[in-house]
């Protein structure tokens, strides 16, 4: 009789956690129960551990979703960059930019330098930090962005395209130096 009740309880718990979209608690609650018993956790600490598990899982999924949606050419965090390859990189400045404080101040940043010094890697790393902070990011090659805007203008959807771009919290435009606009795209 007890085994039926345990099986019913597990089904009920799984169904309700699924209904409430508590994915991480549903996938981990038995392990957390076992740990709580082993560690002799009180009810409150057990509940906190359940909530933290769900919170961490949701944050991870949001970061993955934002990172995929951003359209990065490659994924490289600021911590993964080998800064010693270019001694002109101001590591402290990059680290400060990685805190995203410029976004809080509503400032724009421009990373300049000759080809091959790591500008794209740094911009991507900053963008990934923004995704990790739950911010929406779009990464564009400058030519691709100009093509997108030009196509939108031709289709008479430029206003909608600009409106959707204005909702993005961090817009990263890479390869500005390679941008060669023709007269139509340049607005002449």
TrEMBL record:
Name the UniProt record assigns to this protein: ATP-binding protein
GO biological process, one term: DNA replication
CDD domains for the chain: AAA
Organism: Alkalicella caledoniensis
Keyword Nucleotide-binding: yes
Keywords: ATP-binding, Nucleotide-binding
PANTHER family, sorted: ATP-BINDING PROTEIN RV3427C IN INSERTION SEQUENCE-RELATED, CHROMOSOMAL REPLICATION INITIATOR PROTEIN DNAA
Domain IstB-like ATP-binding: residue ranges: 16-185
Membrane-traversing stretches: none
Tagged with keyword Plastid: no
Single GO MF annotation: ATP binding
């Amino acid at each position: 009789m007890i085994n039926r009740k345990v099986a019913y309880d597990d089904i009920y718990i799984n169904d309700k956690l699924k209904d409430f979209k508590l994915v991480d608690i549903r996938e981990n609650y038995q392990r957390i129960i076992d740990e709580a018993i082993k560690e002799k956790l009180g009810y409150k600490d057990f509940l906190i551990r359940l909530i933290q598990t769900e919170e961490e899982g949701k944050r991870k999924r949001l970061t993955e979703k934002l990172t995929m949606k951003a359209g990065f050419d490659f994924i490289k965090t600021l911590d993964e960059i080998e800064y010693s390859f270019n001694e002109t990189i101001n590591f402290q400045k990059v680290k400060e930019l990685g805190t995203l404080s410029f976004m809080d101040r509503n400032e724009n940043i421009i990373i300049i330098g000759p080809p091959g010094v790591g500008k794209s890697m740094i911009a991507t790393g900053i963008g990934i930090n923004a995704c990790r902070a739950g911010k929406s990011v779009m990464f564009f090659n400058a030519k691709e962005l100009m093509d997108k805007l030009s196509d939108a203008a031709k289709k008479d959807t430029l206003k909608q395209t600009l409106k959707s771009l204005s909702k993005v919290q961090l817009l990263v435009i890479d390869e500005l130096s390679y941008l060669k606009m023709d007269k139509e795209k340049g607005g002449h």
